[in-house]
Amino acid sequence: LKQAAKQGDTEVRKNAYEALYKLRALSLDELFKMAKDKSDPEVNISDIIEGIGWANIHSDPRFAIMLFDRVIAALPSYEYEVASAHFWKAQCFELLKQYDDAIRECNEVTKFPRYNNLTSQVKEQQIRLKKLLDETSRKRKEQHSRLRSPEAVVSPRHSQARILSSMMPFYAKIDSSPRGSLNGSMTRWPDPTRVP
Description:
By secondary structure, the protein is mostly helical.
């Protein structure tokens, strides 16, 4: 594979780099260094890096976010890749139900108007995300209101009664034992020092 990465045509070299990464013979750090230094000008190394991020969006979105953050920070001269990294981060945040962060990433994509394929998709996504965010906020407010309502507030005495009633079968077993009380009430525990 290393020979193919050095001698093959552009597509062969790209496939060889991808395979070397999958075999752990080439690290992400090395790929980023190659992209930054443009050590193989015929192969778009940033595309390989982005492909690694894409492959992890559904299986490990947090790793994908970290990788896309690194693309944004380490490869600022690759404008399309930076815009695309923001786009894919928005997808990851949506999967994680972090709608505020997803909307923020969509806003970042709109700063790259010349990449219409990304910005047009983001406009639709922003509308959907705002609806999801509003729905989530509404549900939280309803839940908060229910928890604060008088019906939800339980007095300490009511709580004790509920706990005791759930323990009735346990007390009944104790009370029916030879050392238990004769009347089956729950007023006394058996005296362990007293011999029957």
